Amino acid sequence: MRCALIEAHALMWIGTPFVPHASIRGAGVDCVQLAGCLYIEVGALDIFDPPKYSIDGGHHLRTSQVIDWIEQSGRFELAELAPEIGDLLCFRIGNIPHHVGVCFSEAEFVHAIKGHGVVTGNLQDATWMKRLTAVYRPIEQ
Fold first, then answer.
1. What sign for the dihedral angle of Cα 78, 51, 111, 100?
2. Burial class of residue 37 (count of CB atoms within 10 Å of its CB; 0-12, 13-18, 19+)
3. Domain locations along the chain
4. For residue 106, which of 90, 136, 86, 92 has the smallest C-alpha distance?
5. CATH for 3-138?
6. Which CA distances in Å does 29 have to 4, 22, 89?
7. Dihedral sign, CA of 110, 123, 72, 57?
8. Which of 8, 34, 102, 114 has its CA 20 to 30 A from that of 43?
9. Beta-sheet strand order (sheet of 117-122)
10. How does DSSP assign the chain, residue by residue?
11. Which pTM was predicted?
12. Residue range 54-108, pLDDT digits in tens
């Protein structure tokens, strides 16, 4: 995955409002759909077909619907907690890992947050560093 390509596509989503289960740049997206759209745009995935998921599942579920899908999809491999550009980052929100972002530079990632929309985050920020629970790398198709 070319670094400049993932960064360019990630930045095109900045400012898109947070809308659960939506996937339209400029109109609405959530964190899961954002990751899927980015991976399709840069050619890392051919299709993105997540199961039904609950936006607030991190607060009431015992297992992560997001992690379950990632691991069962066969499209990602678990990587070291030292993210590379293009990696899928999983963060604990509430009780379990239930939020994702995509790394687009050495320390920056893009993600969609309720009330803020699509924004960048920095892995050097203590808030995100302590919440990072897993890093998954797309498997080359």
1. negative
2. buried
3. 3-138
4. 86
5. 3.90.1720.10
6. 22, 4, 17
7. negative
8. 114
9. 76-79, 132-138, 88-93, 96-103, 108-113, 117-122
10. --HHHHHHHHHHTTTPPB-TT-EETTTEE-HHHHHHHHHHHTTS-S--------TTHHHH-SS-HHHHHHHHHSSEEEE-SS--TTPEEEEEETTEEEEEEEE-SSSEEEEEETTTEEEEEETTSHHHHHHEEEEEEEPP-
11. 0.91
12. 666 555 667 777 888 888 888 999 998 889 999 999 999 888 788 999 999 989 9
- 91, two tokens: 């963060």
Q: In this structure, which amino acid lies at residue 39?
A: Y
Determine the length of the chain. 141
